[in-house]
Specification:
The protein is mainly alpha-helical. The protein has one domain. It has 5 helices and no strands.
Length: 157
């Protein structure tokens, strides 16, 4: 038994229906976006802490930075695990966008860490350290926003 060949209008309607089906849910986009932004905020906090504490030659700065790095690593692993457990799919272009945002934030964090630990950058006040943390977090936060907004209906117009 052979199946009938679909006619041109039927095939066109099937293509339109298939394109309208979403492979990812808005919940998946929100989870991915929050995870990327959260990792960026953690990188920004680490940059602010590194520059604010390590460069000021405080007697307890080594212990504080060691504890902060352990907590930072645990938080990143926790957020990554949370993202994987809460999503069924990866939104379109989310991996590339997340990679670009997190790597850009990581490079900025690395630049601050190298400047402080290897370059002997002078200590800064709390406001400057927080400003540096905001600059470090910005690429990941923007990537998270882009992932979240990619599925918004007005983005497809």
């Amino acid at each position: 038994m052979t199946t009938p060949t679909p006619q041109r209008p039927d095939a066109a309607a099937a293509v339109v229906r298939a394109r309208s089906l979403a492979l990812t849910s808005s919940r998946d986009r929100v989870v991915h976006a929050r995870a990327v932004a959260g990792i960026g905020l953690m990188q920004g906090a680490m940059a602010a802490l590194t520059w604010g504490v390590a460069a000021n030659d405080l007697p307890w700065s080594g212990i504080v930075l060691w504890a902060a790095q352990v907590c930072w690593l645990a938080a990143i692993v926790t957020v990554s695990g949370w993202r994987e457990s809460r999503t069924g799919t990866t939104p379109r272009h989310a991996r590339r966008t997340a990679l670009l945002g997190v790597v850009a934030s990581g490079v900025l964090l690395l630049a601050i860490s190298w400047a402080v630990h290897l370059g002997g950058a002078p200590g800064v006040g709390p406001a400057a350290a927080v400003a540096a943390g905001v600059v470090v977090a910005l690429p990941s936060v923007l990537a998270g926003r882009r992932i979240r907004m990619a599925g918004a209906p007005e983005a497809h117009r």
